[in-house]
Amino acid sequence: MSAVCPEGHLSATEDWCDLCGSPIAPGPSPRAQPSRAAGPPPADGQRGPAGAVDEAGPSDGAGPADGADLPPTTRSAAPLTTPPPSAPACPVCTEPRSGSRYCEACAYDFDTGTVPGAPVPVARPSPASHAGPASRSGPPPHSPPRPHLPATADPVAAVRSADGQTVIAGAGAGAGAGVGWVAEIGPDRAFFDRNDDDVDFPDLVTRRQVALAGDRTLIGRRSPRRNVLPEIDLTLPPEDRGVSRVHAFLDHSDDGRLAVTDAGSANGTWIGSDPRPIPPGRTVPLADGDHIYVGSFTRITVRRTC
Amino acid sequence: MVSFRCEVHQNPYLPEDGTQVDAVVTVTVTADVDGAGPAATARPAHGEAAGTAAGDPAGAGTGRAAGGGPDAVEVILLDCSGSMSGGRKMAEAQRAAAVAVDTLRDGVGFAVICGTSGASMIYPDEGLAIVSDRTRQEAKARIGTLAAGGGTAIGAWLRAARALMLLAPDAIHHALLLTDGQNNEPPDTLAEALAACEGVFQCDARGVGADWKVDELRLIATALLGSVALLRQPADIAADFQAVIQTVMDRGVRDVRLRIWAPRGARIRFVRQVSPQIDELTGRAVAVSDLVQDYPTGAWGSETRDYHVCVDVPPAPVGGRRLAARISLLDGEQTLSTTKVEVIWTDDSVESTRINEVVAHYTGQAELARAIQDGIRARQAGDEDSAVTALGRAAQLAAAAGDELTLRRLEKVVEIVDAQTGQVRPRHSVEKLDEMDLDASSTLTVTPKTP
């Protein structure tokens, strides 16, 4: 058994990350009471947070804005006796900082103050609450006009609809005039064998394609509560839990060039046969037919279409 | 069978930017419901094995480990150097060794070694004997013929014990060392012997009279996960030997390791056993992986021990939570018990500054041990001012902890004017035995007062 922590680490322990010690939200149900299970016990017999959990429990479970899927190293599910002040947040999208260099939601680089690929960091009106419905359903902060395709389609149904060859055609594909790339996503046995991750190679060997619309495509794992809505979403079957929520970006500009940037993923990004992962934060150009490897077994092949 | 239980004492709240996490882990071992302790559980094997091994000339065949050897080995190391002939020391040492042999449980492997400038076997002639009525009688007869004469070579004695221990590799290994003098081996010989013996067996070291060095025996006891104690009178040896052997015979789980996981970027500042006595374990860490360290704790019976673990963790923003440590006890690869040290960052200074009482208590006990040792060292160096300052602080800490025994020992070395404020006056005629007793007992701790 394994789990992925809010910072994207694959952890053999499912209560706390066995790498960074972050709490791992238990269960997918927003109505679960993660704080009760994960909160530090008042082990010394002094008044601990457990008493306070009950007070906050109902509001935790009442809406989709619960803390289950928020980065708990930045936002406590177990409330303090006083309301916690706002944690340092991303200046672009207001997502609380998880402790890593890059914003989990928009990959804003806290060190350089830039969003990879974006011309300038754009200050954005702060939503009422970073966890509120407004921000959840809101447009992605760095490219508001671009729709989040997997979020609007029913991805599972789409995958099932065509036997192994599913094209999720972007409704907004026309937004970028120079669309000319498609990514083919599927498990890769050789890459899986190279890793020693404690997971099984998926039985369901599907290949799907995603047309790269707009100027940027996120490779990651979907998390609506954290407003992470990757176009290339590895929560889709076969789910690859070795992929970070915000794993890497594909930048595809109008001039037809394509490049990949690892967004500080936990387990790295590889290209072709190079045994070394690409350095996080560095933009690496790609050519037609290049293979990108992420997670425990996923290969993404990019192809020029025009 | 026995069961291990861990309990954490800590203040889980850290201030903003706080990184230091202190926790005391209390490990309690209890015999399971039927009241069968480890010694008792070994007994059913007695009848069974005795029946099958009826023709065994040694009359042994009990308490066997799975591999067929004894499940425990005890080696008694008796100082038989020339100085032992003074007073009733040799006679009392012989009586004590006989009591120790009587206290050994049937089926245990044992040997008695006579330590002089070398080490010679008293019983058996070679290797290990298996405890039975017959071997007990034979051993006691041999012990009765001992005479004192020769030097003191503790390193050689320990090496001899080590060789015997290795004859039964799967057993619980313990040695009991008695001396009355200082080691007179070349420098480093003892340290090298200790390095060779570390992890092979545990050793309790006892000094009788006033001519041995506390530091020397403490070095041995610390390296070999045992205790050190002063026996004032030769007549005290027998009762102490009996108590030590009884404790050892009750141990049923060998070589337990304390395993600590700390997150990436964390640093383990120290790991220290704080009860029943202080033992620094920090330097004994064996890295299992980048994030996991193992510390030796030796063999366990039904008992309670406390460990103070201090870890620096990478800070998280206010409201953030992190697992600062995962602490387990392992027997081989089997996890006996495990517990977690969790932290939460807060801007509520009332929460973050509250010091857990157990952590505070043992922090004080560690300081107390240091203050006593510093004070005695200063006293021996003739630095009366430093001695008074250190021993005054010791009196204050002992009073705060309600540690009456330590206060009584301190009172014999300094005149305590006011323990609460740490006011003490030097005494000019102090018995050497009292000073040694205070020194040797300095690492013994008391448990926190229950509120």
Protein described:
- Chain A has 306 residues and is an alpha+beta fold.
- Chain A folds into two domains: 1-36 and 48-85, no CATH class; 149-304, Sandwich (Tumour Suppressor Smad4), CATH 2.60.200.20.
- Chain A is 13% helix and 19% strand.
- Chain A contains six helices and 13 strands.
- Chain A has helices at residues 34-38, 50-62, 133-137, 149-152, 155-161, 189-194; strands spanning 3-4, 10-11, 165-168, 181-187, 207-211, 216-220, 232-233, 246-252, 258-262, 269-271, 283-286, 291-294, 298-304.
- In chain A, the strands form three sheets. Chain A has a six-stranded mixed β-sheet with strand order 3-5-4-13-12-10. Chain A has a five-stranded mixed β-sheet with strand order 7-6-8-9-11, with no helix packed on it. In chain A, strands 1-2 form a two-stranded antiparallel sheet.
- In chain A, strand 12 and strand 13 (298-304) form a beta hairpin.
- The termini of chain A are far apart.
- Chain B has 451 residues and is an alpha+beta fold.
- Chain B has three domains: 2-33 and 254-347, Sandwich (Immunoglobulin-like), CATH 2.60.40.3670; 64-249, von Willebrand factor, type A domain (Rossmann fold, 3-Layer(aba) Sandwich); 358-440, Four Helix Bundle (Hemerythrin (Met), subunit A) (Up-down Bundle), CATH 1.20.120.
- Chain B has 13 helices and 20 strands.
- The longest helix of chain B is centred in the last third of the chain and has 24 residues, at 357-380.
- The relative contact order of chain B is 0.14.
Strand content bin of chain B: 25-35%
Radius of gyration of chain A: 19 Å
Number of discrete helical segments of chain A: 6
Name the CATH class of the largest domain in chain A: Mainly Beta
Fraction of residues in helix of chain B: 25-40%
List the uncertain runs of chain A: 27-87, 116-178
Percent of residues in beta strands of chain A: 15-25%
Mean pLDDT figure of chain B: 89
Assembly form of the protein = heterodimer
Structural class of the secondary structure composition of chain B? alpha+beta
* Number of domains as seen in the coordinates of chain A: 2
CATH topology of the largest domain in chain B: Rossmann fold
Number of strands of chain A: 13
Low-confidence stretches of chain B: 34-66
Alpha plus pi helix count of chain B: 13
How many strand segments of chain B? 20
CATH architecture of the largest domain in chain A: Sandwich
